[in-house]
Amino acid sequence: MTRDSNIDRPLEGYRDYLRVLAQLQLGSRLRGKLDASDLVQQTVLLAHSRRDQFRGLTEAEWRGWLRVILANTLSAAAREFETAARDLRRERSLEAELEQSSTRMEGLLVADQSSPSEAAARGEDLLRLARALGRLPEDQRRAVELHHLKGLTVAEVAAEVDRTRPAVVGLLFRGLKRLRELLTEDRGGER
User: Fold this and answer.
1) Which of 85, 88, 150, 153 has the fewest CB atoms in 10 Å of its CB?
2) Whole-Å CA distances, 18 to 13, 26, 41
């Protein structure tokens, strides 16, 4: 198996993807103390300094490696604010949650694609989706991320964002509609 050429792209291209995942993991207590952008910056710096340690061959393995670095960065930052954060089970759980959120992101994009070229396109689409999520209004972005990427029910999202369930349904509807528009624009209007 040969090395995926997408792995050699600049780490900057993964910022939005990592930011989406970081925001999903920052609970309401930590959100006021930690900034997702700072965590992503730290993750990108660590990945850059340790790039020679990556042993994978595929884009999916590359994103997995970045998620592990992000999970470690999140755990280290949380340790400063919570004494329970040092629990190794929690760190493994965080890696699993990041993996699950990333899988849900991919699920928003495609059905079943298996060829190398389709997998590479899916990686590109994943980064495009992360950029588009960052362009949504904050309330729509948060609702879409919590429901579709973190897997919360509409009622749970409503409690998390302090809105009614009908309001959250509206945010989800408008957020997904705008997301589709942004993704179509990003592809140059094709579809």
Assistant:
1) 88
2) 10, 12, 9
